[in-house]
Amino acid sequence: MVTNLAQGVQAFTSNVYLVPGERTVLIDPGANFDVVDRLESRVDDLDAVVLTHTHPDHVGNLEDVTSAFDVEVWGYDPSIDGVDHGIADGETVQLGDHEYVAVHTPGHKDDHLCFYSADAGILFAGDLVFQNGSFGRTDLEEGDRETLIESIDRVLERISPELAELHTGHGPSVTTNPYDHVELSSQMARQA
């Protein structure tokens, strides 16, 4: 069961997903709160940290987590400080008990990745799309609206309309018709 460790945190942070199982993984350690304490109350060990992207609100706690758990970090661009191993577009990674395909999705940030498991019916979308048709900001450095739209469309082509769970970088996860929310994000990004 995927757990958002940032649930209820009032500080500026991203969502922080603990994916337990055969390979226990933390997706985005977040920022500005004691994620290590929340981790230690749930797991004895972590196998990896996986990043959707390296904006400060998603990686502010990275050093605390790697120090506490002596764990390596996976992300799109290993030339970025703190990223030990690269994940290529289309590469398969194990998160918990399932295999996920990494989809390179720039537009919000150049190193942005989404992770999709057809078997689990789960999409980790980072800051690409959110609930109710919202989508990632493109006014920051490396942001680009046209590129973001292309990225959303690439994800839409990959995921099934039967998608069961959409876990986003901010706001609530979507478990009721999540595919529709991704589709709406594609439409809204074109209109904004």
Q: How would you sum up the global shape?
A: globular
Taking all Cα atoms into account, the compactness measure Rg is 15 Å
What fraction, in percent, of the residue positions are helical?
10-25%
Number of strands: 11
Number of helical elements:
5
Question: What is the name of the CATH topology?
Answer: Metallo-beta-lactamase, Chain A
Cα distance spanning the termini = 35 Å
What class, by secondary structure content? alpha/beta
Strand order of the largest sheet: 1-2-3-4-5-6
CATH class category name: Alpha Beta
How many domains, in number, for the residues?
1
Q: Under the CATH scheme, which architecture would be assigned?
A: 4-Layer Sandwich
CATH-assigned homologous superfamily: Ribonuclease Z/Hydroxyacylglutathione hydrolase-like
How would you sum up the major sheet? 6 strands, mixed
Strand content: 15-25%
Q: What is the N-to-C order of secondary-structure elements (H for helix, E for strand)?
A: EEEHEHHEEEEEEHEH
Give the mean pLDDT: 97
Low-confidence stretches: none
